[in-house]
TrEMBL record:
Keywords: Cell membrane, Membrane, Teichoic acid biosynthesis, Transferase. Residues 6-172 form the Glycosyltransferase 2-like domain. GO terms for biological process: teichoic acid biosynthetic process. This is Glycosyltransferase 2-like domain-containing protein. It is a peripheral membrane protein. Belongs to the CDP-glycerol glycerophosphotransferase family.
């Protein structure tokens, strides 16, 4: 039997975690043949017996257990596995880590489709309470692929992991790439070798590899001996000996990584008296290889001193220790800024103004600190709205709660909108807001929640989100345009995600996508439908309201209404002049359709596409988009989730997409959804007009699509959400 993948797992005293690691491999969605090689490195706990039990309890799986005769460390164990592996691809997994169920399926799909030497996925830290923390900001992750010399961009990484990669075994064998043996930091040379030998690397943007935060790890023990610094020197020597880069920046990035790690390790893992000796040994190895390498001009203060001032190249050990100490204490950057930019003498009135400002800030901070000591009130619900706006799911669930005669909840909505009655309205970031934030049992958001809002123990944070994604969302996309401008984008957003207790979904398909997009636990996603969609269902036959809405916009009753709602484009991010070639030519559509139709143009909240056409209705910003869906006869969009809202009440829709290739590079769409929606897609105005007139892709198509894209059953989303809020265990509802 041929194997597509060989998983190599070295183990040493991981009895507490190995079961979870193995389960994560056994529960992969990938249906191909997988070989699992377990190499135990003389564990002294129950690890060996657990491995044997797994092998015996899963006779249908290709599990091989090997026992090392002596403890030779992970590198030796991995090399032994690599030597007998039979899979076309090899994946290394540490015995205390886990992988997402989609890992192999997504990675081998990219590997096979593009003939990569290896494919890497992103990674995330995993804690004992199942919480994940994303800290990565490697900029090369915005790429789909790295090719030729730019494969060495892997050397830019803040952490050199070899375990989050699916390697073509022939690639490793061809170049004789193996791990170092007999010391701890055995993966340095392996990591650098695969980077400098690869011709093509595929990148999966999802953080499928979960690195357990394990204080018992072999790389955190034995701090009273020289084992760490001795291993470090051996690893650096072995790595530099084989280092033969193609890219001009590779020396800088590798040396930067090694020096920074050296300074960290001697501070945290080396015994007294070894600091200067170790730095000298490492610098000697580096500088013996080369000192005249490229150094970027725009670098952070730490690396400015290390490399532009040439403390590394000139082996200035005392200066390196001083700079590292200042950096570790958080003092280097402020001192650097003061030195680089002399402050002008402040005018007296400015000084007084600043003093007054400081007093006001101090007073507010004292108030906030007092609020943090307040107890949580079980009946208080705080709505943050959609970025403080009174719209969407937040609005409709709030309205439902507010209008309940038997409600015992104390409700608040954070907004400046006068549509919210004053008794419920809270000004964003006011003292009243912070007081209620600290008292609320439930905090309900519908978009990203600012990180400076502190979550208290005992609170439940519910994320309503704002739609079923057709366009790839967050971790499912490389998001190159956004991440290029903000390297901490994904790290900060994941910190927010880690605070969500539950996430609302509107369909089975949405739940499926949210799981990977947010790296979120499936059992924490509540697939009970959206309050905004519930409003549409409740009002689908409300002819009185529909008539009033048409009259408010001077739309003749006999005319058919076409709602055009394009979504925002990533490739316009931070651009002063927008690329609007993707927009529908409504004037042309009016010519093709005649006078029986009227167009409403509703741009995305982040867009600036105001059509200057007297025959096109631009609704006021105060009019909720759900009202427009309700009165529309046909909806035209592109990548927006709004079409799925309309689908719930059988509104026909079409997707006008003429920038697919450009959008795919900027964000991308879900391939399976693009396949499902294929009958609804058009690329020209002529094709679109023809479908509208012929009523092509009508009820039969809509009914088939509803199976996976609409909440099933005769349910009331508001009632279910309220019921879940009043239960102590939402997951087991």
């Amino acid at each position: 039997m041929g194997f597509e993948i060989t998983v190599i797992i070295p183990t040493y005293n991981v009895a507490k975690y190995i079961g979870e690691a193995l389960n994560s491999v056994l529960n992969q969605t990938f249906k191909g043949n997988v070989e699992i090689l377990l190499i135990d490195d003389c564990s002294t706990d129950e690890t060996p017996s657990i491995l044997e039990d797994y092998k015996n309890n899963h006779p249908d799986r290709a599990i091989t257990v090997l026992h090392q005769e002596t403890n030779a460390r992970q590198g030796t164990a991995r090399n032994r596995g690599l030597g007998i592996a039979q899979g076309k691809y090899v994946f290394f997994l540490d015995g205390d880590d886990t992988i997402d169920p989609n890992t192999f399926e997504k990675m081998i799909e990219k590997a096979e489709g593009s003939q990569c030497d290896f494919v890497m996925c992103d990674w995330v830290y995993a804690y004992e309470d199942r919480k994940l923390m994303y800290v990565n900001y490697d900029r090369f992750l915005t790429n789909e692929y790295l090719e030729a010399e730019y494969c060495e961009r892997l050397l830019e990484a803040a952490t050199y992991f070899t375990v989050n990669k699916l390697y073509n075994r022939e690639f490793l064998l061809k170049h004789g790439i193996t791990y170092g043996e007999g010391y701890i930091y055995e993966d340095y040379e392996f990591y650098v070798e695969v980077a400098q030998r690869a011709e093509k690397i595929g990148i999966v943007s999802n953080p499928f590899y979960h690195v357990r935060v394990n204080e018992d790890s072999t790389t955190k023990k034995d701090r009273k001996t020289t084992i760490h610094i001795d291993s470090l020197v051996k690893a650096v020597e072995a790595t530099i000996t084989k280092f033969d880069p193609r890219w001009e920046q590779s020396y800088y990035h590798l040396y930067k990584y090694i020096v920074k790690k050296t300074m960290n390790y001697i501070r945290e893992r080396a015994p007294m008296g070894q600091k200067r000796k170790t730095i000298k040994k490492v610098l000697t190895i580096l500088n013996r290889k080369r000192t005249d390498y490229y150094v970027p001009r725009d670098v952070v203060p730490l690396f400015y001193f290390y490399f532009r001032r040439k403390y590394v190249q000139n082996s200035k050990i005392n200066q390196l220790i001083l700079i590292d100490d200042l950096h570790h204490k958080g003092q280097l950057t402020p001192l650097f800024r003061k030195a680089m930019k002399a402050k002008e003498t402040m005018l007296k009135n400015k000084t007084i103004s600043k003093l007054n400002q400081k007093r006001l800030i101090a007073k507010k901070n004292n108030e906030l600190q007092r609020y943090e000591e307040l107890s949580i009130k079980e009946n208080v619900i705080l709505f943050l709205g959609f970025d403080y706006r009174y719209i969407g799911n937040s609005k409709y669930f709030f309205d439902y709660m507010m209008n309940r005669a038997d409600s015992t909840h104390e409700l608040y909505f954070v907004t400046t909108s006068n549509e919210v009655p004053s008794k419920y309205r809270v000004t964003p970031r006011s003292l009243k807001f912070y007081k209620i934030l600290n008292q609320a049992k439930f905090v309900i958001g519908e978009s990203w929640i600012p990180l400076d809002f502190k979550k208290k123990d005992g609170q439940e944070w519910i994320q309503l989100w704002h739609g079923t994604p057709f366009k790839k969302l967050f971790f499912d996309s490389h998001e190159p345009f956004i991440t290029t401008f903000n390297k901490n984008h994904k790290r900060d957003k994941q910190r927010d995600i880690s605070r969500w207790d539950y996430l609302l979904a509107d369909s089975p398909k949405a739940k499926e996508k949210f799981t990977t997009a947010f790296a979120y636990l499936e059992d924490r996603i509540l697939n009970i439908g959206y309050p905004r969609v519930q409003w549409l269902k409740d009002n689908r036959n409300n002819q009185k309201l529909i008539k009033e809405l048409k009259q408010s916009m001077d739309i003749p009753e006999h005319k058919k209404v076409i709602l055009y709602v394009p979504t925002w484009r990533d490739y316009n991010y931070k651009k002063s002049v927008l690329d609007l070639d993707y927009t529908l030519d409504i004037s042309r559509m009016q010519q093709l359709l005649g006078e029986d139709y009227v167009f409403i143009n509703k741009d995305h909240s982040m867009g600036r596409n105001q059509l200057k056409n007297p025959n096109v209705i631009t609704p006021p910003n105060t009019l909720e988009v759900q009202n427009l869906i309700l009165l529309a006869d046909v909806i035209i969009s592109d990548y927006s989730s709004i079409v799925f809202d309309g689908l719930a009440i059988d509104k026909p829709f079409y997707l006008f997409i003429n920038d697919f290739d450009k959008y795919e590079k900027a964000r991308g769409v879900y391939v399976d959804m693009a396949r499902d929606l294929g009958d609804f897609c058009v690329t020209t105005e002529e094709e679109l007009a023809e479908k509208i007139v012929k009523e092509d892709v009508w009820l039969d198509h809509l009914m088939r699509l509803k199976e996976g894209y609409v909440t099933e059953g005769d349910v009331n989303s508001n009632e279910l959400l309220l019921e879940k809020l009043t239960r102590t265990n939402l997951v087991n509802f």
